[in-house]
Design goal:
The chain is α/β, with parallel strands linked by helices. It has a single domain, classed as 3-Layer(aba) Sandwich (Rossmann fold), CATH 3.40.50.2020. About 35% of the residues lie in helices and about 15% in strands. It has helices at about 1-15, 30-35, 80-90, 95-110, 130-135, 140-150, 175-180, 210-220, and strands at about 70-75, 120-125, 155, 160, 185, 195-205, 225-230. It starts with a helix and ends with a strand.
Length: about 240
């Protein structure tokens, strides 16, 4: 009750405004959200991704640990970049995860697929110090919303980031691979054994982070590991 009153007062004193157009009422209005082009296709994991006729990977990326990638929109889309940057770096408003989750679920609707309710959602973890500094893990917030909407269970804190790596955004492809190597570990392998896992993050860039996570999840016994992101830089 007190939280509801507090939120009401905040909305009155500091009304929410669309980050894109400035309209009052929400951090991202329906009109601006509807202008984001949702990806209606599935693509392979390659740097220059090929449209797939069936789910999975092309011949060139067949050796990747990830079984494939579902990505909702292009990170080159200005509105998507705006959402991600305000969530992670600028205002750090957790509520913006709602919009990124909406994009992911809209993508699944376009490709006429569903996230199986018996699968497991695993957010890409942040190192504990970085999570405390930000106040939350954006991948975790996205995964929680998708879990609530689909019924898929979510695993928190089993896949851990055990090294405080440099931010990947500042590095090139080879530096990213070296930077993230052996940065993750699984605490309880039994939870992942024979599971289909959807590895959740905000943006897929080179795939180095997700590939390293997938390696650990499969080492723990996961049968399949699929990437699941709101945006992809190479689309």
């Amino acid at each position: 009750m007190l939280k509801a009153v507090k939120n009401f007062l905040l909305d009155v004193i500091f009304p929410k405004k669309c980050l894109n157009c400035g309209r009052e009422g929400a951090y991202f209005c329906e009109d601006c959200l509807s202008l984001i082009e949702i990806n209606p296709f599935e693509y392979c994991l390659c740097e220059k991704p090929q449209k797939l006729m069936s789910t999975g990977k092309c011949w060139f990326c067949r050796d990747r640990k990830l079984n494939g990638l579902y990505s909702a929109a292009s990170f080159k889309e200005r509105r998507v970049k705006l959402l991600v940057h305000h969530l992670k770096y600028l205002n750090q408003i957790k509520e913006l995860a709602d919009y990124l989750s909406f994009l992911i679920l809209a993508h699944f609707n376009f490709i006429t697929k569903e996230i199986p309710s018996d699968s497991l959602l695993v957010p890409v973890p942040l190192f504990i110090k970085r999570k405390k500094a930000r106040g939350f893990n954006q991948a975790e917030e996205i995964a929680k919303i998708i879990s609530a909407k689909t019924g898929a269970k979510i695993s928190l804190d089993n896949l851990k980031r055990i090294r405080n790596t440099q931010p990947q955004v500042k590095l090139n492809k080879m530096e990213r691979i070296e930077n993230i190597k052996n940065a993750f570990a699984v605490s309880n392998a039994e939870e992942f054994k024979k599971k289909i896992i959807f590895l959740v993050d905000d943006v897929y860039t080179t795939g180095a982070t997700m590939e390293e996570c997938a390696k650990e999840l499969k080492r723990a016994g996961a049968s399949e590991v699929w990437g699941l992101t709101a945006a992809r830089e190479t689309n």
